[in-house]
Amino acid sequence: MKKAKISASMMCSNLIDLKSTISIFESENIEHLHIDVMDGDFVPNFGLGSDYIRGLRELTKIPLDLHLMIKSPEYKYRWLGIKNSDMVSIHYESTSQIQRALDWLSEYGCKRFLAINPATPIYVLEEVLDYIDGINLLMVNPGFAGQRIVPSTIKKAKRLRQFLTERGKDNIEIEVDGNITYENARILRNIGANIFVAGTSSIFNGDICDYETHIREFRKCLDL
Ligand code: DX5
Ligand code: ZN
After folding, report:
1. Number of folded domains in the chain?
2. Which of 50, 120, 187, 190 could form a disulfide with 116 if both were Cys (CB 3.0 to 4.6 A apart)?
3. Which member of 39, 65, 86, 177 is catalytic?
4. Is 25 helix (H, G, I), strand (E, B) or coil?
């Protein structure tokens, strides 16, 4: 089973404590910073943009996990300063040319993840498995923190794992994003997810003085 990694959801952090938040994450070896880039069109919310990404890179070396919740992402990659150490998730539902969008992403040398919303069936992945390093399985309808998991997504995670195994694609990583509580993390880890977006349901549930304890609690749920 792949090593479990935490991707801390930065839309849940507050800007005032950003520097101290980052130093806690660095001392706790958080593997990724999850950046929800939202355009107010693909999702009904505006989110962290290119200035925020640029600023964060000056603050820390923690690899970024860019979750692009934007329409036609393939025409906007160059706005984001994508690095080869990044993971970049684009949504299946955000472009009519998903194979080309994934193909164009390869020039950045980043890890390519395909994100699918709760109602998007797994079979859409069939023809693009050779173009992705991972799948970002949305457990909520994306755009806001603090939501409740869509119940059907747990079974969907199980079917996704099976779908990949049947096609000899166990190398493809599964990221789970949205309402990843300690309980949901444990269940999804057992199913075979290995990257966990940690937001208000775990790390950011409380003040900065609680972050360290919450991270260690979260790690315990992930270590089988
Ligand atoms: C959902 C966002 C996530 C996440 C935040 O659109 O992509 O970052 O939901 O964490 P929670 O759901 O725990 O507040
Ligand atoms: Zn996200």
Report:
1. 1
2. 120
3. 177
4. helix
